[in-house]
Amino acid sequence: MKQRTPVSAIMTKNIIGLKKSDDLQYAETLFNKHKIKHIPVVSGKAVIGMLSYSDLLKISYADVTEDESDVDAVVYNMFTIEQVMVKNVVTISSETTIKEATRRLAESDFHALPVVDNGILKGIITTTDLLNYFVDQF
């Protein structure tokens, strides 16, 4: 296993992003369509927030009703992405080592790190990316 491998070697570069003006129903569609759990919220090419699928679950009452789609639509219309997203996003650079990214995620309550160089979103690395990397090493 290489000690100094940068996250740029394994990060997701084809980023699915949201704007704060997008709605939560659209966000849920992206989560489901792309089978992802984290979406950076951007203004231009800069990260201004992060929305996770678990953020949607926190505001959804889908588990307590028979018709999930109706309740989700009502609840999602009560909130904006800006209200639900995490605003103080921890980011890393593309040169951050995989070891350092792993350490940061292990010590945090979140499971994804936007990769940002010079204020521009370049990719995203998740705990799943790291687990897949480590599995490939064996």
From TrEMBL:
Keyword Nucleotidyltransferase among record annotations: no
The organism's place on the tree of life at top rank: Bacteria
Gene3D superfamilies: CBS-domain (3.10.580.10)
Keyword Magnesium: no
Entry keywords, A to Z: CBS domain
Name of protein: CBS domain-containing protein
InterPro entries linked: CBS_dom (IPR000644), CBS_dom_sf (IPR046342), Diverse_CBS-Domain (IPR051257)
Pfam families reported for this sequence: CBS
Species of provenance: Algibacter aquimarinus
Lineage of the organism: Bacteria, Pseudomonadati, Bacteroidota, Flavobacteriia, Flavobacteriales
Residue ranges of every copy of the CBS domain listed in the record: 11-68, 85-138
